[in-house]
Amino acid sequence: MPLPLYLQPSPRREKTAVEQEIEEWDKLDEEVFSQQMRVVDVSDRQFTFVPDSIIQTLKCLVCIPAPDDPLEMTRVKAGHRAFVRSQTAPAHTTGFLRTFGERTRSVNVTHMHGMRDGIHLIFSNNLITKLPRKLWDLDRLTVLTLRGNRLEVLPPEIRRLHNLEDLNIANNQLQYVPSELLLMNLRVLNLHPNPFLAPPSLDDRPVSETDILIQDRVLPLTELLCRVLVSPAPSTLFSKGNPDSFLSSYYPLPLPPTCLIPPRIAETLDACVPGSVCSSDLMSEPRDDISMGTCGNPSHHAENRIFVRPVEQRFSWEKVIAGQNAGGMVPVMWRGCEHGCLDFLKSETGGGSSAMEDIEMAEDGEEMVVQPISLGGGIDDFDFE
């Protein structure tokens, strides 16, 4: 006699592809931490995303000086601590919460699989369409292989990877690379194949016309205020919280929900200063097109001029990228913080000087532009469309 329906075991539901992928990342996350892995190779796994948790775990592996490294031992004897125990918060990935809480681990560099040259991330031949923002805070990353994925944009934040030596972004869906890549000095760079934009002419170094993104000569007050809040703060303001920005210098972060921050502003602040806004104030994940950028004009580098919304953009086609021969013409996207910022680039018919020559001329001759501030428009009118 068959059992009543209420006593019959419910059929086991098969895991969805997303659930299976999350489970695989969780297992890998545990392996990275328990085995002190600095080489993460997930090639040919059909992964569609990279969770924040794996990046956070790699950051938790805090290296201490090797006993046979005279330079490092000198630093230790001079009063530096032999190791640092970092403070981390539970990381969140898209759609799920980490299965373990805060943790950190100190690791001697000589014990990390015998390697002394940083962290290697190999994500070749997957289905990844975008990269997590936390990736750009992985200071010890030296090798990043993204070949054979579905990336359409290489974020300009890649410049924050100061120790990066090898970058492979071939066989993706990239149409251009950011100008920030020109400021890096890589040992190995692989860019081709990619569906790069074709140059507008046969000149030795073509340059496109300037595309104006904000028509008004006077920037909205909300944009100017956001630029100030997310800008690096001077040392005199390092009194509260994380001394990275004006916002963190004046206010303890995250900002409490009682601040009643409009959704667009909250989304922007969280994208530019991660962790600055409570999750309850965020409507969704920050949009990919919102980030803190640095003006491409070299004369503005010393002033560290940044923006949330670029005022203009322009393309040039370069043969040398990050100190390496690009293997052909590669389109580079430049972004400016105000009108006229990108005039230092040669016009489409102005000859074939290199990007570095343009940079040198801009540093020698460009004058500072002073703009008045518009007080019109309320904070609720802030829009990135």
Automatic annotation (TrEMBL):
The lineage of its organism: Eukaryota, Fungi, Dikarya, Basidiomycota, Agaricomycotina. Pfam families: LRR_1. It comes from the Eukaryota. It comes from Macrolepiota fuliginosa MF-IS2. One of its GO terms (cellular component) is cytoplasm. Keywords: Leucine-rich repeat, Repeat. InterPro entries: Leu-rich_rpt, Leu-rich_rpt_typical-subtyp, LRR_dom_sf, LRR_domain-containing. This is Uncharacterized protein.
